[in-house]
Each structure stands twice: as C-alpha cells, then as structure tokens.
Amino acid sequence: MxxxxxxxxxxxxLGACAVNSLFLLPNAWKAVEAFSDTWGLSNFQRRFLQRxxxxxxxxxxxxxxxxxxSVRLVSPAPPWYLAYYLYPRILKKGSENLADRKKVREQxxxxxxxxxxxxxxPELTAYPPxxxxxx
Amino acid sequence: MAEFLAVIYILYLVxxxxxxxxxxxxxxxxxxxxxxxxxxxxxxxxxxxxxFLNLLNxxxxxxxxxxxxxxxxxxPVGGGMLFKWPTQIASxxxxxxxxSWMKPVAFFxxxxxxxxxxxxxxxxxxxxxxSIVIYGFKAKILFQEQTFKTDAFMDPSVLHYSADxxxxxxxxxxxxxxxxxxxxxxxxxxxxxxxxxSWLGILYEALVERLRKDYAWILLCVIAxxxxxxxxxxxxxxxxxxxxxxxxxxxAFLLCGFxxxxxxxxxxWVMMALFAFGCAFTKNEGFVAMxxxxxxxxxxxxxxxxxxxxxxxxxxxxxxxxxWWLRSVLPxxxxxxxxxxxxxxxxxxxxxxxxxxYLASEWMQIRSWGIFWPLxxxxxxxxxxxxxxxxxxxxxxxxxxxxxxxxxYVYLTYPQNLExxxxxxxxxxxxxxxxxxxxxxxxxxxx
Lengths: 135, 447
Description:
The structure holds 2 protein chains of 2 kinds. By secondary structure, chain A is of the alpha/beta class. Chain A is 48% helix and 16% strand. Chain A has helices at 6-37, 43-51, 53-64, 82-86, 101-107; strands spanning 70-74, 90-95, 112-117, 123-127. Chain A has a 4-stranded mixed β-sheet, sandwiched between helices. In chain A, helix 4 links the parallel strand 1 and strand 2 (90-95). Helices cover 69% and strands 0% of the residues of chain B. Chain B has helices spanning 2-25, 33-55, 64-82, 102-123, 129-145, 151-154, 168-180, 189-208, 213-224, 227-230, 243-263, 269-280, 284-300, 310-329, 345-363, 366-369, 372-381, 391-413, 418-431, 434-442. The longest helix of chain B has 24 residues, at 2-25. Chain B starts with a helix and ends in a 5-residue tail after the last helix.
C-alpha cells in the first residue's frame, strides 16, 4: 500500500487549526475583556449587564412575592425564564387572557396572581391572595 | 470562595470516580486521561446514587449528604481490598517516536482554548434556554427540595418545561449547590469546562493508543479550537447545555464497547453499562444513541463473541430501568413519532428538503465549524489504497449514520414549524457526532 505523505496530513491539520484560530482568538480576547469587566461584581449585577431591563422586572416581582408562594400566571405569552428566576416561588398556569385576572384570583384564593404582558402598555402586576391560608 | 468550593467538588467527583475506575478497570499503569474517565464515572455514580436515594425516600438533608458521598468512595476502596483481582495488562507500549515541537505547541493551543472557556464561565451566569429552563430549573428544585417528589416536578399545572427530561446534569449541579449552600449559576459553569476537558481527554487517549503522538496532538488541537466551543451560543464549551456532557458519555460508551469487543469478559463491562446509563440519563437523544450503539456492536461481532455483550447490555438495562419507570410517572409532552404515518409523501419530501438544506448549510458554517466538515469528508473519502479503513472506523461511521437517521426522523415527525426548530437544534445534534467522527477519521492515520 502506498502511504499518504505524513507531511501533507500534518499540513492539512495545521491549516484547520489556523482557520479555527481566526475565530478562537477574537473570542478569547472578548472572554478576557468580559472577565475583567465583571471582576468583583455580584451575580445580580452580572445579570443586569447581561440582560438589562428584563432582569429588573424579575427582581421587582421577587421583592413583592414571598419565597415558597404559589403564583398563578396570567399572561398571553409568558417569558420562558420567569419560572427559573422566580423559583422557589412556584409558577402555575392561570390564564392566557389578561381580562381573566379577577376570575383567576377568585378561583385560586390561596395563590398570588402575576399579570405579565409585553403588549402596549406593558404590564407587570402581582396581586396577593384574596384569602391566604384558606384551603 | 464559590470558585474554590467548585474545584473541591470537582476534585471529589474525580476522586470518587478514580476509586471506582481502579476498582472496575484495575489499570496496570497510571495515565492522565484516567482523570477524564474518573470525572465521567464520578458524575454518573453521584447522579445515580441521588436518584436511588430519592426513589427510596432516603433523606439526604444536612450532613447525611456527605455520609452518602463518602460511602460512594468507601465501597470501591473496600471492594478493591476484599477482591484481589488481577491487574490489566498495559494496553499499549509507550510510544518511542519522538514528539518534537508538537507537544508544547499543542499545550499552548489547547491552553488558549481552555482559558477562553474558563473566562467565559466565570464572567456571566448561564442564560440560554436549555441551560436554565431545562437543566438549571431542575437543579434548583433538587437543591431546594432534595427530591423530585415535589409539586414542582409532579404537578402538571406548574410551569415546568419538559419535566420528564433526564436528571443527570440537574443532580450534578444540585450536588454543587449543596456544597456551596446556595445556587450559583455562574460558577457552576466550571463543571461544564471539566466535562469539555474530560471529553477531549478521552478522545486524545483513544487517538494516541493507535496513532503517532504528534498526529494525536494536532487532531486534539483541531477539535479543541473548533469555533463553536468559544462562540457565545449553544455549542459553547461552558454553555450549560447537556450536549457536551452527552458527547463525552457517548464517546466513552463507544470506547468501552471497543474494549469489550477486544477483551470480552476481561473488559470493564460494568463501566460500559455505567456510561450507557450516563447517555440515557443526560439527554433523550442519549438513550437512542446508546441503543443504536448496542445494536451496532452486537451486529458487527462474530456469532461466538456475541455472548460477551450479555453482561454489559443486561447491566445497562438494569441501571436504566429506575429512570425509565420514573420518566413514565413524570408529566410529559405527548410523543409525535408515529405521526409520520399520517404525513403525505409531498409533505415528507418538502420536510426532507428543508432538513437537507439546513444540514448542508450547517456543514459549511465556517464560523461554527471551521473546516471540520470538509476535513471529515476528505478523511472518509480518501482512497483505501493510501489510508487503511479499519473496521472500528466503519462501526463508528455506522453509529453516526444511524444517529443522524434518527434525528432526521424526529425532525420529519415534528408537529410544529420545522424551520423554527432546525436552526436552533442542528448544531447541537451534530456536536454529538464530533467524537465518533474524529476517531473514525483519525484511526485511518494508524500506521
């Protein structure tokens, strides 16, 4: 069997590394910059830098609704990250219709009701339970 | 402090995995890629133990957690002292070919890639869909409640996307949060850095066992520097997605399979069963890959040798059964895989065209893949009279083809807009094939 020249193989693989480096090096530089820019910040502050206002909205809700609370969500298009960030508040399905907020509150007397809408005007309102502790 | 505790936790996982590795494999010599295997075993065993404790309602609160974690080290150490099994014969003689300048260059290149991932991990918390909605959310619940037996998992009215997704990563992340005492979705990304490094480690070992060291190093550099691992997207080394952990377990599973094929009952078949469980418990795609892997290994072996597969396959099934039972209990989305029967031929053709177009376009994405795909095609098509095509390479190719076939089938039957799904998932699905394809092509360079 006639072997393929090892220099050719080596050259091709080194070429692939060189092409990869065109993308790796700028990414490496950006990573160093991001690391130095965020040095000493808390995770909250890093999320502000990362995502901006939407995380402010999450914090607003966090400050209103107590931990471990059960929350019914009234929202036509609930943001996918809410359940993650609000935990240990348990987010449950309420309604997709913003007009149902009163109905949902009356239906789930123990639960908080969170209304979220990105339509104009945007809305983020947390309603406390009507009768906390009543089964 | 969190970073320090993350390192301690990783050392615990590696240490525990090393104890099991020495117990199961009984290696004659110590080589650094064993650390990579150990990390894989450590994560699998810790997640399995957590699942087992939860299923049996055994508490893990307070100091009990550390008792169970210590037990996971005591069992293999004690077992190793009680059962004096013969050590394995060293699988390959040390290489005599000088490595010259390639080793330091490779260290430098891989070092830049690793530092990039490290800085990315420590700069910002996880923030993409799968990393927080699928795995991060589960990890938070498991950390808070110490069990999946809670409304957040069981109540279908809770907004919990894909509550029946595999739990390996959430258990490993929750284990770190327990050590830390609180959730830190930034520092937890270090775990993914180790996953990525471990995956590269076992690929290097598999390459260097057959190739000249300089070939193995340069191939490792090509893989480590692939742009998708440093881009801030879903394929990133520290994205927090389960794709790199799955790529690691899947590659490890295949490598264990080749050992069973070579050594029969003398191979570490328990390790193969554990990595099979690792695949199935990391992503749903992992279960499919594992089944395809078994079928290909058994089909490719001679009839008298097929009995060697009874042990690993049985052990793998036994390990996976509890998870499959649990998966059937958790709220889940309805499967759509039988839907293809209702599709009209014209619709199937139209969907195949979409899949083909995106696939071809992804292969040419130099910003994600560099020239990885042209290299793979070149390596596969290179004439056999110039480069041998070993049977193991053909088996790996069969595994990847079957895997892609299944992914294609899932796309074909997806009930919603395919043009939305394919662009956000294709890169990650192709990522699972990097390991087997690199080995399939790399092993052709064996002299």
